[in-house]
């Protein structure tokens, strides 16, 4: 056969001059067309995705409030050694810039920022401003110290100094229950103030649990969908897609109605005599799992189904003809071929679950709130963009890390096989 | 291969019937014995039940009634993974997530054969199919012919007592197919395999098989060696399905032991070999191979001579086919070697055609 094949190979043609240039020209046109086709999407992605995310990442380290409102004070304070009180020059520039900050909302911005360093700072600033004279005979340091004794404490100035640089790691640290100590080293915050480490763990546990349940429930269903005759599988598919026809909020509310202590589930169980008193099924972790699995299940089933649909049943037949028990054939031959669907489904569900907010907020208890809840809290309630962004950043990092690990695992498996 | 009838057959279908829908029998009363070491082909048009027979043998379908035996064992209730039958599927069914080597190891792993021995067997068969350097490739990285050989090797590596192949060459181009036909035939001879092969390509069946079972409509029309099938077709279906064939409808005038006198067309008569179950007065279909019809046969002293009109020349390189009109049938073909043709013959000429009694058969009227 080798000779026959060799003969059928076309002879290598001679080089034609100018062919390369021709090819390049032809390719260029095609490339331009391709670019034109993806351009709208690319632009949309940049505007709706890349810019907001970079903005969010930036805000998690952004510390520009003091630097913008009091540029000179900020500059002088960075040169200050922090041992004794700052020099007269700092006092005078500060007094001037504080007075100027009254216009254009600058005072509000630095007040909010400095309150993170010391919760009484805003009051200190407004009190100082109220009696701050336009000019003074004495030195500015004496004037300020006479207005409020706190201006004679180095700690006050140290707080101002910490807020002076253009960037800060305080939000990122705080999002991990860490802070900078007085000597500048990183330390854990007081035990009774720690929240976020636990919230992150909880978020990963809930998202992981939901993903696992979705996989365990979705796999058999997707298999059924892929193997049933078309007419039946179409009907089943409608049931799978039905949740998409109602809004997320309605579905979540429906779960509350069903699961609450006087709800359908509890009354049914009680009339059947299976339980004595109503089970606590909602406003706790159980409710969160119920509602989230229900909402996210289609996102597991659809990628699984599309992969399974493409797997011919002949492979399992082949395996049994080679002596494998049908279960072994399923596990060794069928399941590995679905792995790409499993990967797509779990990643999709996990990434969606990790960012869930409304559902846990409605059907969960206080100890079931996930990271997004705190992101929402900081953006909507306290206007603390730094903390919101820092939490968001870690959420993003966690997702990316998990994705990388997953990618590595899947790739490694393929490498071993190759 | 000459077969002794006393030998216990390896495979025995006994009165097997199969219906899928409870209305139509896809396989009707199948009786078939296959001897050890035999290469038997199931040949037939699409939908005639070949795959169904093979699937019943492999265990993926159960017979509606009747029994299938493999050696002494009744197979009907034995699940497919315990039958120890190698199978080559039409689209190979190589496991896409495994390398060539893993594919070949698979049947050995399911049989709990030790790693060292399994590896040795796989190496041996890989060198036999000349794919040693491809052992670590995925099936998708092989050409069609290479995949075909891997599929074959996988069905053979665990030394099954029987190998089934369902149109294994259907997806290959003509040249490769012919090459693989010979390769499979050689493997069959070298390893002493028993093979049941399914195809709807009659030339493939004739090239490869010891015996061919011609299927139609769920019934074996004839089972015989390729030579007998071609030379002595049992009925009109087989005559038409295997090779080229001219048919002329006629009527039996009189019948002796195994020859008869048949009238056909407008007052033509010929002597012919009589098919089974035909009596004088019956309608019949005369069957003559185009290469057995002689052109301008006056000097040949043949029993049956007729005048015909030449309509068309069809040039085929090594021979010519002449389309003629004989007894009202204008699709009557004659096959002539190129060098035997009189050069001044042209379309529209009156010609004389003739044949011997032994070359024409009166078969059942379809
Ligand atoms: N799973 C099935 N369910 C119902 N009918 C079937 C099934 N498989 C085959 N049939 C029917 O049985 C008949 C024989 O099918 P079979 O596959 O045995 O034919 P075949 O001879 O292998 O044809 P081909 O050469 O086209 O492969 C066909 O009419 C087909 O429609
Ligand atoms: Mg078939």
From TrEMBL, chain B:
One of the record's GO molecular function terms: ATP binding
Keywords: ATP-binding, Cell membrane, Hydrolase, Membrane, Nucleotide-binding, Translocase, Transport
Pfam families per record: ABC_tran, TOBE_2
InterPro entries according to UniProt: AAA+_ATPase (IPR003593), ABC_SmlMolc_Importer (IPR050093), ABC_transporter-like_ATP-bd (IPR003439), ABC_transporter-like_CS (IPR017871), Mo/tungstate-bd_C_term_dom (IPR008995), P-loop_NTPase (IPR027417), PotA-like (IPR005893), Transp-assoc_OB_typ2 (IPR013611)
Gene3D superfamilies, sorted: 2.40.50.100, P-loop containing nucleotide triphosphate hydrolases
Gene Ontology CC terms: ATP-binding cassette (ABC) transporter complex
The organism's place on the tree of life at top rank: Bacteria
Keyword Membrane on entry: yes
Enzyme Commission code(s) on record: 7.6.2.11
EC category: translocase
Catalytic activity: ATP + H2O + polyamine-[polyamine-binding protein]Side 1 = ADP + phosphate + polyamineSide 2 + [polyamine-binding protein]Side 1
Signal peptide: none
Domain ABC transporter stretches: 11-242
Alphabetical list of PROSITE patterns matching this protein: ABC_TRANSPORTER_1, ABC_TRANSPORTER_2
Family, per entry: Belongs to the ABC transporter superfamily. Spermidine/putrescine importer (TC 3.A.1.11.1) family.
Purpose: Part of the ABC transporter complex PotABCD involved in spermidine/putrescine import. Responsible for energy coupling to the transport system.
Record's subunit section: The complex is composed of two ATP-binding proteins (PotA), two transmembrane proteins (PotB and PotC) and a solute-binding protein (PotD).
Protein name: Spermidine/putrescine import ATP-binding protein PotA
